[in-house]
Amino acid sequence: LQLRIFNLNCWAIRYLSKRRQERVQLIGDKLRWEGFDLALLQEVWSEQDYSDLKAKLASSYPFSHYFRSGVIGSGLCVFSKFPILDTLLYQYSLNGYPYMLQHGDWFCGKSVGLLIIKISGILFNVYVTHLHAEYCREKDAYLPHRLVQAWELAQFIRHTSKAADVVLLGGDLNMHPEDVGIRLLRGWTGLQDAFTEAECFEGCEDGCTLVPSNCFTVKAELLPFPLGIRIDYILYKAVSNFTVKCQELKTTKGTAPGVDIPFSDHEAMMATLHIHRQGQPGGATTTTMDPKLVDVVTEARMEVEVGLRAARRQRYWRGRMAVLALLLLLLQAAAALGTLVGLGAGQPFPKLSFSLLAFLATGVLLLATTLHLFHTMEVKMLQGTEEQMRRVL
Amino acid sequence: LQLRIFNLNCWAIRYLSKRRQERVQLIGDKLRWEGFDLALLQEVWSEQDYSDLKAKLASSYPFSHYFRSGVIGSGLCVFSKFPILDTLLYQYSLNGYPYMLQHGDWFCGKSVGLLIIKISGILFNVYVTHLHAEYCREKDAYLPHRLVQAWELAQFIRHTSKAADVVLLGGDLNMHPEDVGIRLLRGWTGLQDAFTEAECFEGCEDGCTLVPSNCFTVKAELLPFPLGIRIDYILYKAVSNFTVKCQELKTTKGTAPGVDIPFSDHEAMMATLHIHRQGQPGGATTTTMDPKLVDVVTEARMEVEVGLRAARRQRYWRGRMAVLALLLLLLQAAAALGTLVGLGAGQPFPKLSFSLLAFLATGVLLLATTLHLFHTMEVKMLQGTEEQMRRVL
After folding, report:
1. Is the CB of B114 less than 8 angstroms away from the CB of A159?
2. How is this protein annotated for GO cellular component (chains A, B) (predicted)?
3. pLDDT for res B193
4. Which of A27, A92, B91, B112 could bridge across to A149 with cysteines, CB 3.0–4.6 Å?
5. Residue B159: which of A114, A356, A377 has the nearest Cβ?
6. Given a cut of 50, is residue A285 above it in pLDDT?
């Protein structure tokens, strides 16, 4: 069986992404023209764009699914030539902070979507995902969250793919190939990287998917990486007695073929996989851990612990702020009560500033309490992941 | 293989549950004395209680796991005689409202926990869960959320149990046996009810787990049900060529044996299951839907649609409130600006009420926006579930 897969982070944010509608049209044209078996898309934030694509691709990809999640939507969708038998969405337990409005990851409810597809009697578990973005590589405050996501992704794949013949994962993982999260994901699931395994590769050097030659990328962010970075992946493995080989992998090179603009700020990946029945089980999930994997899990666990300490600090400070605001409010209430019953020598403060202060204190109290609760949840989830990793070790 | 299982909603809320510490001690004593193979507990909200139980049961149940989630914790924990090979937590996408402080379900991050356990070469997938409470049966505002949870629970079990030999589910489902959610869960997973299947039953009439004779239950809530209600369950099925039979099911009857207080406001369930290898696959997941299941899914879908309409209304009203607050603020800003540049005949409002109004408007704006976002997420998740159910039909 030969399977042709398309994977792209479409960068289709309403009102924010440049030339969005034009690009979505281009992506639709490409998909229709090429007739892939499976197209895995990320960052299709607008359901209208999905509906437009669906209408356009109805004849060539009769089956499709959009994963709803978060405030804006997960942005994940899939177009398929073959019937989608079932779907499941797993929302990551940690995904940035709601108050980081400028980053906005929290509002998308980042998730992994699972699709069950049967092609010529072979059962495929297809996963599509998009992990938390990396905004500053030097001081990456979101690394613990992304590691929790990578761990949850690996665990979700392990637990749901046991009856599958072939596992496929496509998505924007926001991690470089040598990052601990990718090593953790690949080590813990046994997934193979289409780029490193490809018999024939054609595209950007080193398989990069975010390259300076793309006119939509932020050049300043790519300064330390003159060739670009590789953060989008197609990963696969055979679970039962099948083997999967990547015959060919292509990426776009900064522009869409035949036009002057790229599909997105990311490059599209197009893989041709060859699946055949004979042979030994491929990358079966390891039951005894090899020492290399132990190192990776230990490294990931240490990063999670760093995040845990930070989350605990945040929780402590928000709690403290809430207590201070509460004390101030109580003090004001006591002063007001004193004036009312005529104990003090009249109201010593001007009424206006007194009321403003009370309102301010109430605002701080509510905000700090909410943040305290949020960071409590963060601590819980980081603790849970850390414990799971410890159990595995 | 004979397996003895204990299941109990422990009602161990710190500061709120009556005689908590005494009861947790009693539960620990019972578990140690009886030596079950597996104890599935819910509502162990305090990690201290879990640690105490763990220390006490270290010799009889060397393996245990506490599922962390939400602000307070999921309350779910498991004690096992046999090694726990792996765990996974799935947090339900909908779980009440954060502003319903008096109900508090939202703060627990209600989830289903999965444990993989191997006993005598038989692979068990053990699930423990606690669904959203029902506060008013006549006008149950949480029914759509509980149905989404039941659906997600069923889907999670279906997708993760494909390699298991035996599936076990224990927990407080907060649904009566004839409720649509239970029928959906059982129909869609093929799980069997230990109470109806038990060869020998001893306990409260009709297998009730919330009974008037228990001194901790709220009598007023049980008025329409003189015998009590059955909302805690042990469900099971054999996936591969195994058969599972429930030889015996017992419940406590309002008090713990030998003492004057009950373990909890719920009754404990104790099941003895008999698992043997020969025989045809038991309740294998149905591939073609029988007409009865179609009816159940249709009924559930209609309830989800009712919830969807309510969520949309909420989202609309919160949005409207936010817009009104914003308009008021803009009006105030214009008036203040007018006074500043000397256009108007001085400030016509007293400064104090003017400032208070501005603060109030800001507060309403923030609150309404947050709620609007929250209900947008609710709409998304209800839509997603409704679509999944439609696909299944």
Report:
1. yes
2. membrane
3. 95
4. A92
5. A114
6. no
